Amino acid sequence: MSKKRYLITSALPYANGPLHLGHLAGAYLPADIYARYCRLKKRDTLYICGSDEHGVPIMIRARSEGVPPQEIVDRYHFMNEKSFRKFGMSFDYYGRTSSPVHHQTSQDFFRTLARKNLFVLKTDKQLYDPEAKMFLADRFVRGTCPVCGYEDAYGDQCEQCGSSLSPADLINPRSAITDAEPVLKESTHWYLPLAKFQPKLEKWISGHPEWRPNVRGQIQSWFSNGLKDRAVTRDLPWGVALPEDVAQAAGVDANGKVLYVWFDAPIGYISATKEWAAKKGEPELWKEYWQNPDTNLIHFIGKDNIVFHCLIFPAMLMGHGDYVLPENVPANEFLNIKGLKFSTSRGIALWVEDFLEKYPADSLRYSLAISMPETRDADFSWEDFQAKHNNELADILGNFVNRTFIFVRNYFGGKLPHLGELDDLDQQLIDRLVQGKEKVGRAIDEFQFKEATRQFMDVARFANKYFNDQEPWSTRKNNPEKCATTLNLCTQTAYSLAILMNPILPFTSAKIWKMLHLPDESDRANWEDIGTLPLEEGHSIEDIEILFQKIPEKVIKAEIENMRKLSEGGPEKAETKPAFLSFDEFRKMQLRTARVLSAEKVKGTDKLMKLRIEVGEEERQIVAGIAQHYSPKEMVGKTIIIVANLQPAKIRGIESNGMLLAVNDGDTLALVQPDRDVPSGKPVS
RNA sequence: GGCGGCGUAGCUCAGUUGGUCAGAGCAUCGGAAUCAUAAUCCGAGUGUCCGGGGUUCGAGUCCCUGCGCCGCUACCA
To answer: Which nucleotide's C1' is closest to A465 (Cα)?
Structure first.
């Protein structure tokens, strides 16, 4: 670690949704702690992040909302940037990949690799959706499996028989986006032949035994399977355009082709750095960070990003030749929310924005830091959050600072008392501060943020013990000089703690700084000052405020209850206002009686049953999820109630024209039936 | 069902390359103290390290298998 500069990045959050707690615990909080620590150590530090704004999901979302993609990414770019700020993220620059600088940078990068002949071109016939005007990824093609005849197989795999397929194998293929019949269309794409890079990558990785075992493990499994060629262009209307000159040289029409989002996203780190440098008025400065071998490049990511940051992007950087490679990639695992059926698509998560409306950022930072998913998935629970906030931040840390400052105010007129001769315990306290500086520092340098957080709180614990053992409330009467020394040291300790906590609890650090009436900001303090005793006798302490107000039981109970509702019923049920249906709306729904003519279980499913039913004159087929509770035999002849005008759907490839009504109560499922004999096809009202 | 992850004290978790590794904090119980947000400090107990096999002189730590939990996905109440 003799290198000079630190270039720190956090994974670019994808701009098609808001941030949740899992994001923070994974790639953002650890990076921010690290960056803040580096700055306090007076290292040359640059911390970069931004929004990732290209790719298929954003396009699909835009299409479904009927707005241009730019509108989607604008929405989340600004929303997320704001959430980050409230959380105390200290990015030096937060960019976005829709910026012109980024497009330019990505194209230049691509051009360089092309000029060096590092790409392989492949032309394939691919399925194209004429309605959506786009080529379809394998997963977006559905059709009949040629092996088992299952009608709703994916383009890459049949869920029914497990056969591995290619989209061209499917009989009657259709687009999962528009349902249109795809046509085969020839398309040429640029591939990064990763296999060629494998020896170099392996050699590079083997030089980093200090990387986290889970990261190395995942990389090894990629190596042992052998790296494959990766397409780095796509046929899509949204993204960084394929450079025309490159396409022309290859005799390909660049129209409609873009760089694959995973090619351009990591380059976003570089373009954001460029924008930072330009804004600073030193447009060439970015090169110092990206191209000077004296740089430590550290990527903070979640575990889902390992392959891109440890293999693909490094291969790109190697291929380009002018760039430094990452020094470490401390990937975190996932954060689960206890009791919450997490689902971003249904909008079920603990969102950062909501959370910070109600609770202090530092409390969240602390509780995420102390149970960060460093080596395995971790759980976040409301009870735990409350316990950390109340028992540790408020009772241990907050109370130490408060009892010290109040004591100085009440008995020394708010002026720092004289530091006299030190006894053993005094010396022990000072030693602990110095040790804390070393232990917390070492842990952060080794990316062990839980350990760092624990070590920090241990220092605060010891400070309380010191206060107790010195008994200033009694020395005040029988040994005033000692009492003065004790309180002098306690105040100096608060000062040291403010620096020690700054990477983890920046807002609290600033509050203590202010109460200590210090110039400048705690962010600018020097890590090495921890354990020194810089405050002079007579130094005044002002405007004492409580650092952490306790969170009452009932508040947490309400959160848990709210979360339970959210998990059970989705967002609708969590609404407090009952939603009334107008009579007209009700009349739109056609409920009818129907008689079951025949029934059979849908093969390969647990719950589904296919029913032929008679609805008056008409005969139709529906699919119902009742097979675990009723046998096909007992269904035959029953009169049931159906929603007759529900939009027809294909379930596991089987047409369903209506929905059977049943009551679901946990393990019990009961059919809704008229309690007298009635003919089928009669309206229910 | 498929893919991925996880299973160590009541709870949240540490346990680096297999050899004092059976730990920490919280919660609980007992005591001390009263400067402080009734906040602090001291002392104490608890564990078939999910079960079963295997490799080894020796396994939370490696391999296999079973069970359980979670996430994504798939199957419309």
So the answer is: B41
Name the nucleotide with the smallest C1'–CA separation from A658: B76
Are β-strands A295-302 and A326-328 bridged in parallel, bridged antiparallel, or unpaired?
Answer: parallel
Protein-covered nucleotides on strand B (Cβ within 7 A)? 1-2, 5-7, 11-17, 24-27, 33-37, 39-42, 70-77
CA A453 to C1' B75 (Å) is: 45
Q: CB A349: neighbour CB atoms within 10 A?
A: 21
Straight-line distance from CA A629 to C1' B68, in Å? 24
Residue–nucleotide distance: A378 CA to B8 C1' (Å): 15
Residue pair A122/A188 in contact (Cβ under 8 Å)? The answer is yes
Q: Is residue A473 part of a domain?
A: yes
Across all strands, nucleotide nearest A624 (CA–C1'): B76
C-alpha distances in angstroms, A303 versus A213, A335, A352, A372, A379? 12, 11, 20, 13, 16
Nucleotide B39, nearest residue via CA and C1'? A395
Distances (CA, A) of A427 to A424, A459, A475: 5, 14, 18
Nearest nt (C1') to A397 (CA)?
B39
* Whether residues A334 and A438 fall in one domain: no
Q: Which residue is nearest to nucleotide B2 (CA to C1')?
A: A159
Interface TM-score (ipTM) > 0.90: no
Whether the per-residue pLDDT at A373 is higher than 90: the answer is no
Total of domains in chain A = 4
Q: Are residues A349 and A398 in the same domain?
A: no
Lookup: tokens for A303: 């575990």
Question: Which nucleotide is nearest to A380 if distance is taken from CA to C1'?
Answer: B12
User: At A655, which helix (H) or strand (E)?
Assistant: strand A654-656
Token digits for A637?
């002849």
Task: Give SS3 for A164.
Answer: strand
Q: Estimate in Å the CA A387 to C1' B26 gap, whole number.
A: 7
Q: pLDDT (tens digit, 9 = 90+) per residue, A284-294? A: 999 999 999 99
pLDDT in tens, A457-488: 999 999 999 999 999 999 999 999 999 999 99
* Nucleotide with smallest C1' distance to residue A346 CA: B72
A29 and A68 both lie in a single domain: yes
Report how far residue A641's alpha carbon sits from residue A660's, in angstroms, rounded to the nearest whole number.
Answer: 6
Which amino acid type is present at position A23? H
Whole-number Å distance between alpha carbons of A268 and A323 = 14
Separation in Å: B63 C1' and A169 CA: 39
- Within this chain, do residues A517 and A451 fall inside the same structural domain, yes or no? yes
Burial (CB count <10 Å: 0-12, 13-18, 19+), residue A647: exposed
How distant is C1' of B35 from CA of A337, in Å? 40
**Tokens 């396009």 sit on residue:** A59
Residue lying closest to nucleotide B14, CA to C1':
A451
Confidence (pTM): 0.81
CA A136, CA A129: separation in Å to the nearest integer? Answer: 7
Domain boundary among A576, A610, A639: A576
C-alpha–C-alpha distance, residues A92 and A449, integer Å: 21
Distance in angstroms (rounded) separating the CA atoms of residues A278 and A272: 10
Ramachandran quadrant class, A256 (left: phi over 0; alpha: psi -120 to 50; beta: rest)? left
Residue A629: give the domain boundaries. 579-671
The CA–C1' separation of A375 and B63, in angstroms, is 22
**Nearest nucleotide (C1') to the CA of residue A549?**
B37
Q: How confident is the model at residue A493 (pLDDT cuts 50, 70, 90)?
A: very high
Domain finish residue from A258, A286, A304: A258
Give the CA A211 to C1' B6 distance in Å: 22
Comparing A380 with A528, the larger pLDDT belongs to: A528
pLDDT of residue A601 exceeding 90, the answer is no
